Amino acid sequence: MTRRAFLGLGSNLGDREAYLQHALDRLPDVTKVSSFWETAPVGGPEQGPFLNCVVQLSTDRTARQLLAVCREREAEAERIRVERWGPRTLDVDVLWIDGETVDEYDLVVPHPRMFERAFVLIPLRELAPDLIPSDFVDPPLDEVWPYDPS
Predict the structure, then answer these.
(1) pLDDT (tens digit, 9 = 90+) per residue, 44-68?
(2) Are 96 and 114 a contacting pair, CB within 8 Å?
(3) Collapsing DSSP states into helix, strand and coil, what is residue 75?
(4) Which residues carry out catalysis?
(5) What whole-number distance in Å separates Cα of residue 116 and Cα of residue 95?
(6) Whole domain around residue 38: which residue ranges?
(7) What is the CATH number of the domain that holds 12?
(8) φ and ψ at 8, to 5 degrees?
(9) Band of pLDDT at residue 84, cut at 50, 70 and 90
(10) Which residues pair with residue 39 across a beta bridge?
(11) Would strands 50-59 and 30-33 be described as parallel, antiparallel, or unpaired?
(12) pLDDT digits (tens, 9 = 90+) for 88-117
């Protein structure tokens, strides 16, 4: 049975746009891609801004299978996990799968912090306004701003 699922992607090292685009090109079952948004880092050490987007899938994959796909894309980008919330070439998270919840040591769906993070909610709103909390307020433009590649 195919279901709607959402993945969040982010990068703040190297050619951020190229890392995101390569991952997008290699993700299965993509039906929609949000705009790219630049965001100030949340938590962790001092680091440069992230480039973020959200993708919608129509998939029959389980949350565990989607996590494996996410880890494969991160490995292709040579992501190294050194410091929690540290800089990274690519981060791909399973955000939401319609009708599925998971609470395991290495995978929680819906993503446990997705409703606290404007860098998820703003691009997600483009694709699935039905998932956005009614009390969500856009953050200041110094936290999340439209990407201008020029």
Answers:
(1) 777 889 999 999 999 999 999 999 9
(2) yes
(3) helix
(4) 79, 88, 91, 93
(5) 12
(6) 3-146
(7) 3.30.70.560
(8) -105, 135
(9) low
(10) 50, 144
(11) antiparallel
(12) 889 999 999 999 999 999 999 999 899 989
Sort residue 43 into left (φ over 0), alpha (ψ -120 to 50) or beta.
left
Residue in 147, 148, 143, 121 with CA at minimum distance from that of residue 132 = 121
Q: How many domains does the chain have?
A: 1
- Residue burial 41-77, b: 16+ Cβ < 10 Å; e: rest: beeeeeeebbbbbbbbbebebebeebbebbeebbeeb
If you search the block for the tokens 């953050």, which residue do you land on? 139
> CA 24, CA 43: separation in Å to the nearest integer?
25
Rounded to whole angstroms, how far apart are CA atoms 52 and 106? 22
